[in-house]
Input
Amino acid sequence: MIIKKAHINDLEGIMSMYSSCVKGMIENNIDQWDDTYPNSNVIKEDIKAGTYFIAIINKKIIGGINIDQKQDKTYLTIKWLNNTNLFLVVHRLAVKKEYWQKKIGKKLMSFAEELAKKKKFNSVRLDTYSGNPKAMLFYKKLGYRLLGDINLKPGKNEYYCFEKIL
Output
């Protein structure tokens, strides 16, 4: 498997990967994402910003992750472990359903952590949907600490914020 920066011509493959991931989530009663999010406009902006990375096996996109310093304004309500501006934020981590349980997500998160270290950042932050127990367990196993919750979508369950000091 290789992980590399995505290019605009990868968009179709990325959206196909998200479609597979979302289908698997819905089959597991996780209503975090649907056919409106993540959408191609959001991913296109990530690619243009140079912050979206893809995991590839046999020339097929099987996973993706956006890694930047953008955090929702609701993140300001969280008491983070790292009080500096030296952090990266993970968004939209996804793996094609057929590749679940093959440690692809773990490899993408390790990539994010190595990128943060390379840039001399102190931590990685993220949020995950409270209705996604698999994701919460996944991040805890990787050493991320649950620090609080935020509400990103009115009327939906809250999202839990995690951080790992590097």
Remarks:
- The chain has four helices and seven strands.
- The longest helix spans residues 11-27.
- Residues 2-165 form a domain with the Aminopeptidase fold (CATH 3.40.630.30).
